[in-house]
User: Which sequence fits this backbone?
């Protein structure tokens, strides 16, 4: 027996015991199978060392020496191991190509001369302003000290005043809302329950009253709602009597503050007509008694118009009775039309620095005027309106009582209607049905026309001179008119084709109404009288209800329904 302390070396060899001894392989050289010789044994030396051995103790000692002591910074979380972006060359850091825009303009000698004159004027005014500031600074040097401090104080005070004015306006709105709380509640929520016992009749509920104390002597000559801000409307003040040639005024009111206008513009002559641009609601076209037309910008500072007609640009020689914004021209310039007492319909284009006029058509002379006096005695145009679907068609009402249908494409009128016995006060196309329009005149009558016929479809006698008429924006069969006896007449042809649903006096018998306009959104109308007063009135439910539908059918709305309502009435009256 061997001693247990004796060391014995044992060699382990790996051998494929499962391999067969008769292994055959194909020889591509001799093209046959040949037996394979025995595979050599595989010997693998191990790398494991026992830790108690001499070599193992040396390796453990070296490992202990090379190990570093752990600190708080030895452990790093994976969240803080961010990737480092590779550096980029400056050569590859390019910017995107800027957007290219084609620009073209023409300049003649007059434009260049005007530009130099304006630049010279600006430099002269700036020089005078600097000299004035220097004089003030020299006088205030001993009191205020440094000039720069004085200028900083002035700029800061202007800014503070602007902020103070905004805050004061908001405070004024809040105070008016508290004072007129009952009126605001009526405007939002009140519905007259007594309409259930009136049948088809209705009433008008007075709301706010607007009047500027400084111009109580001037009558309201024009009213126009802002289509974008439906609580804002324009009021034109001016007299058309030769014995009362006073200055006019253009006011803008909102029902949030009925005590004072939001905007105020003084004019050299009476304001006869006003129209607000539908898309650019800050542009306002105005026609004056002296024949001028002008354009105001509500966003600009000051009370002067940005455009004003002159004799060189084709100014009217008579009172401008109507202005209407039209669609922009091919170059994107804003355009409006005017009709005047000189018998001309003129198109005005807003150029870069001034207005440019184009004579569209001249009104034909009256029947009893001799041929040699046609150019001397002209027919005055009093009212103008454009077709809603065909903007190149328009209607003109004259002092002779006739309505002329014209087109911007022709120099002669297409058709003439014998509308009234006296002068025409207003003409308006129906906002829904493209064939229907309404007229009113000083012969006490309101006529509703089908453009394909020569006689009116409906005629209403209001027993007084009809000053103005307007279609409702929510129905093709509802319209309202004001008369010289101070009454407001509201009709709905789909309910009653023979008389008004409402006849209500809103001013005293000594005053007469001059204008009327429907709000584009709310069931409200505004009327103006001959003493500068504007009254807002709310329509009761009977004046704005839809006709009864057949049983089993849902109530239908929309433009097609309104067109069908009017077409049904036209068929019944033929």
Assistant:
């Amino acid at each position: 027996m061997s001693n247990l302390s004796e060391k014995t070396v044992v060699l382990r060899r790996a051998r494929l015991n499962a391999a067969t001894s008769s292994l055959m392989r194909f020889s591509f050289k001799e093209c046959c199978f040949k037996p394979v010789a025995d595979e050599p044994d595989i010997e693998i030396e191990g790398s494991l060392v026992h830790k108690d051995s001499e070599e193992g103790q040396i390796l453990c000692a070296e490992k202990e020496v090379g190990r570093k002591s752990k600190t708080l910074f030895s452990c790093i979380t994976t969240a803080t191991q961010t990737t480092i972006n590779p550096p980029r060359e400056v050569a590859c850091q390019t910017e995107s190509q800027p957007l290219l825009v084609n620009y073209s303009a023409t300049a003649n000698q007059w434009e260049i001369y005007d530009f130099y004159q304006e630049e010279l004027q600006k430099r002269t005014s700036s020089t005078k302003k600097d000299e004035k500031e220097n004089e003030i600074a020299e006088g205030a040097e001993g009191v205020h000290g440094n000039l720069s401090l004085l200028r900083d104080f002035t700029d800061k005070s202007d800014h503070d005043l602007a902020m103070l004015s905004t805050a004061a306006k908001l405070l004024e709105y809040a105070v008016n809302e508290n004072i007129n709380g009952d009126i605001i509640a009526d405007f939002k929520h009140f519905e007259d329950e007594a309409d259930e016992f009136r049948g088809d009749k209705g009433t008008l509920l007075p709301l706010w009253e607007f009047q500027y104390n400084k111009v109580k002597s001037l009558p309201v000559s024009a009213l126009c709602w802002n289509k974008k801000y439906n609580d804002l409307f324009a009021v034109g003040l001016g007299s058309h009597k030769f014995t009362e040639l006073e200055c006019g005024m253009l006011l803008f009111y909102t029902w949030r503050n009925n005590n004072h206008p939001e905007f105020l513009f003084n004019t050299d002559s009476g304001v006869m007509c006003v129209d607000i641009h539908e898309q650019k609601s800050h542009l306002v076209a105005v026609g004056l008694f002296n024949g001028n037309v002008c354009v105001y910008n509500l966003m600009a500072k000051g009370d002067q118009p940005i455009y004003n007609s002159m004799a060189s640009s084709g100014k009217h020689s008579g009172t401008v009775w109507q202005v209407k914004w039209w669609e922009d021209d091919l170059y994107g310039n804003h355009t409006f039309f005017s009709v005047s007492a000189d018998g001309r319909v003129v198109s005005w284009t807003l150029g870069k620095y001034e207005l440019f006029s184009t004579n569209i058509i001249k009104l034909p002379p009256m029947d009893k005027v001799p041929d040699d006096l046609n150019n001397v005695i002209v027919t005055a145009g009093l009212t103008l309106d454009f077709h809603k679907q065909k903007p190149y068609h328009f209607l003109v009402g004259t002092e002779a009582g006739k309505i002329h249908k014209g087109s911007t494409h022709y120099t002669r009128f297409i058709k003439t209607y014998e509308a009234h016995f006296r002068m025409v006060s207003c003409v308006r196309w129906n906002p829904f049905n493209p064939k229907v329009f309404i007229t009113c005149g000083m012969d006490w009558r309101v006529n509703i026309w089908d453009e394909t016929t020569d006689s009116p479809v409906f005629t209403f006698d209001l027993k007084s001179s009809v000053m103005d008429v307007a279609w409702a924006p929510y129905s093709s069969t509802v319209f309202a008119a004001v008369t010289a006896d101070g009454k407001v007449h509201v009709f709905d042809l789909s309910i009653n084709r023979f008389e008004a649903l409402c006849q209500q006096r809103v001013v005293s018998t000594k005053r007469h109404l001059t204008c009327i306009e429907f709000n584009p959104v709310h069931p409200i109308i505004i009327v103006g009288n001959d003493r500068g007063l504007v009254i807002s009135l709310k329509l009761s439910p009977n004046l704005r209800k839809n006709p009864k539908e057949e049983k089993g059918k849902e109530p239908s709305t929309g433009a097609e329904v309104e067109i069908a309502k009017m077409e049904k009435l036209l068929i019944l009256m033929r």
About this structure: The longest strand covers residues 355-362. Confidence is low (pLDDT under 50) at residues 140-147. The first helix runs from residue 54 to 66.
